[in-house]
Amino acid sequence: MLNAPGKARMVTPQMAAFFALLFSYPLWSNSVGLYDYLGLEIAIFILYALGFNLLLGYAGLPSFGHGAFLGIGAYAYGLSQIHIAQSLPLGLLAAVIASAAAGGFVALFLAHRRGIYFALLTIAFGQVFWFTAMKWHSVTGGEDGLLNVLRPRTALMSLDLSSNVTLYYLVAAIVAVSTLLLWRFVHSPFGAAIQAVRMNETRARFVGYRVWFLKWCVFTLSAAIAGFAGGLFCLTQESAYPDVMSLHASGLVVMMTLIGGGFVSFWGPVVGVIVYFLARDLLGAHTDAWLLWYGLLFMGVMLFEPEGIAGAWGRLVRHFSSGAPTAAETHREPAA
Amino acid sequence: MTGTALFKADNLHKRFGDRIVLEDVSLAFSGEGVHGIMGPNGAGKSTCFNVLTGMFPPDRGRITFAGDDITGLPAEQILEKGISRSFQIMTLFDEFTVLENVLVALPGVRKRIGRIFYDMRADTALTDEAAATLAMVGLAGREKIRASDLPYGERRALEIAVALASSPRLLFLDEPTQGLGSDGRARLGDLIAQLKDRFSIVVIEHDMAFLFRLADRVSVIHWGQVIAEGTPAELSENEWVRASDLSKAS
Amino acid sequence: MDFLLPHILNGLALGLLFALIALGFTLIVGVMEVINLAHGSLFAFGAYVAMVIIAEGHGEGISALSWYYELPLWTRYLSALVIAPIVVALLGFGLEFCLRRTYGKKKEYGLLLTFGAALVIEESIRLVWGSAEQTLTVPSAISGAFIAGDMIYSIYRIYAALFAAAAIGLVWLFLEKTPYGAMVKAGAHDGEMVRALGINLSRLQLLIFGLGSALAALAGIILTPIWGLRPHVGVDVVIPAFLIVVLGGIGSFWGAVIGGLLVGMTVAMTGAFASDWSIMSMYLLLIVVLTLRARGLFGKKTALES
To answer: By the 8 A CB rule, do A330 and A323 touch?
Structure first.
């Protein structure tokens, strides 16, 4: 189960640890051989994956085309900066609105679907968006994408966003606030309702939930969060390109979320994103075939520990805290 | 009695492909006490139940509840009208705790679905309400256990508690004795006897002895039709009931 | 009409090739209810293995086999057609062995596991053969072109379409005329029945997964001379295969064939008028068909829906 029984505490040890890590990153990253820009990528992808897990872990809807919404957010951000005005709030607003609109439209076709039909349709829609980004040269810049989306000079409080460290703190603050909101969200009645739908759709209908509408909402919300992350992504790398929308990229976020343990823990996606980017940089420095090892890791997780790292960690904690199974933050899920 | 019926179904037809499952079924529940529906397996009583509670619409016919036409309404709207049901095959939210299973089914939680900062687990008014519902079915003290970890008999009780959470005017119980031993059946019988003071109840059951002890009126369904109806005493005299295989079913 | 005719012929030929791609996929999904997302990678792997067997720039370095590489090209091509599918079937056996741990769990696990396997196979190919575009040499008898009327026809495309039609026919014969086919059809409808018939279900599953993988490899060998060969060609194959099978209706053999023809026709027609968007048309086709018919053209209810 994703929610601990009892009250939703405002701050849990996991959350404190995450925030400590998030905000202190620039202080120690260089001394352990990491770099500021990596922190930006990780923070943005954490937001993306947390939003994605609303769909995958909480609602139990496996989307294999979520990269499309990250990409739409990035393009919307970039286009607003190029064609309207260089403004951070405008760009992020455009990103959220565009991706929510696209997500809301796609969800009309998906919200009553289940299982592989849902999965395949997300692939199909993802491919449609990806192809459009690739082929609609006049707007998207084709395969090269939108280049030179300069970071706004004076965004909020006249911060100098050209510095990666300053930008990092801004992004980290945004990610932290979003994480808190998501944490509250999954513990709200809506969060409980989408989990109820995942566990037993029929019963959820018969206790009064409009299942179709709930699924539509959660898909749209998840798409909007992906688009928000996409806007931040475009802000950070000063460009938007179709790669993030490919099936390959969409698949990677599924793998990150599951390796981390999105099925059993709110924090699973956070762990999964960190593992992915560290593997990319650390393994990637040694071997071109790092994705091979990452793929094997994913297969191993699916075969032997489908609850991912968070699930394994939860079991470890329970093992050493001598019983009290209901007190642990993460719970063992039956074969579901 | 038709004039005062709380729930009335007229001339329901339902077919799946070329198999006719319900053929001109008419039923009326007065809303007092326990109304039983019985019949052998495969007689169409489960389909009948599913049509009555909005799982799928009838092909023809009309269903009214408290004077409102509810034919073909989706399940969640039928629930809003005051009809709730349990299921023959267990349909719990397995990864939730016992308490959460009932909480999520409370109208008070459902009504607050748009409130992101609302924490239902911290609202004592709601948790008390859920705990009271659990106490009603004998699950007091079991609140924090995961639904999937409950023993079978208690899962059956929770199945009923989730249906009770919406405080329905009419409660449909689908084969509640399914899988229970004689002890479990006895306890369940006591529970239903208590509940019938507060709720109008319709029970599907193929265990004739169990149903005849509990029900005030019984409708017998066979071959997709209502073949007999009356009090248990009247029915035990009925030729149809005697002649059919029903007695063997119990 | 004269103007459309070549496009229709092209669409038919392409459709047969799409159906060939979907054959192994539909067999596995029908019997085992597993969405094999590694199908495209098995396709690519089969083509790479065939490339080595045919050689022309690969593998001649191994002196112990030099006698082999002196055999005529068509002999090596024919042996590739036999050996590569067998090699890939062995890999399929291994994959099915891994998949066993997911049986009885939620259907998504099989899909996710094969998704990981696809990545692993693709990256392994990249490691062994590099990322560069490769080609598959074919005997001169089936290459080249001829002119009929005003049109130039590629001999290889005609060969490939005929090969695809023959493969479809053989799989159909296998399903209809052999005892294994009867088991497969029983399994396609009801796993319980297979057990009731006293058939060894796990052996049947192993066999079907191997056969499906071999068919993927065969499709790879036939299609590579047309589509080219890159490590990530798998994605371009598995998604159309998945799409065609759902379009036709899961578990329906003729649904997959008709789905393939429909996709081929759609892609060819779109290609004729707006070539940039030809691939995208198949996704739009899927969205339209599934919106109108929830389970595809000939689909029945399956466990994959929940």
So the answer is: no
Asked if the C-beta of B242 comes within 8 angstroms of chain A's C-beta atoms, the answer is no
Neighbours of chain B (3+ CB pairs under 8 A): A
Q: Angle formed by the axes of helices A115-135 and C278-292, to 10°?
A: 150
Do C and A count as touching (3 or more CB pairs closer than 8 A)?
yes
Question: d(Cα C186, Cα C180) in Å, to the nearest integer?
Answer: 10
Provide the residue count of chain A: 336
C230, C10 contact by CB (below 8 A): no
Instruction: Judge whether A115 and C295 are in contact, CB under 8 Å.
Output: no
Q: Which among C27, C16, C39 is positioned nearest to C267, based on CA atoms?
A: C16
Q: Nearest-CA neighbor of B196 among B217, B214, B177?
A: B214
Report CA dihedral (C146, C149, C150, C151) to the nearest 10 degrees: -40
Does the pTM surpass 0.95? The reply is no
Residue B118 near residue B112 (C-beta atoms within 8 A):
yes
Cβ neighbours of residue A282 under 8 Å, at least 6 residues apart? none
Question: How far A28 CA lies from chain C's nearest CA (Å)?
Answer: 33
Per-residue pLDDT of chain B (250 residues; tens, 9 = 90+): 445 688 888 888 888 877 788 888 888 888 788 999 888 776 677 888 888 888 888 888 889 998 889 988 898 899 988 999 998 888 899 999 999 999 999 998 988 988 888 888 888 899 999 999 999 888 888 888 999 999 988 999 999 999 999 989 999 999 888 888 888 888 888 888 888 888 899 998 878 888 888 888 888 888 778 888 888 878 877 766 666 555 454 4
| Percent helix, strand and coil across chain A, each to the nearest 5 | 75, 0, 25
Residue C180, strand partner residues: none
* Burial class of residue C213 in the structure, from the number of CB atoms within 10 Å of its CB (0-12 exposed, 13-18 middle, 19+ buried): buried
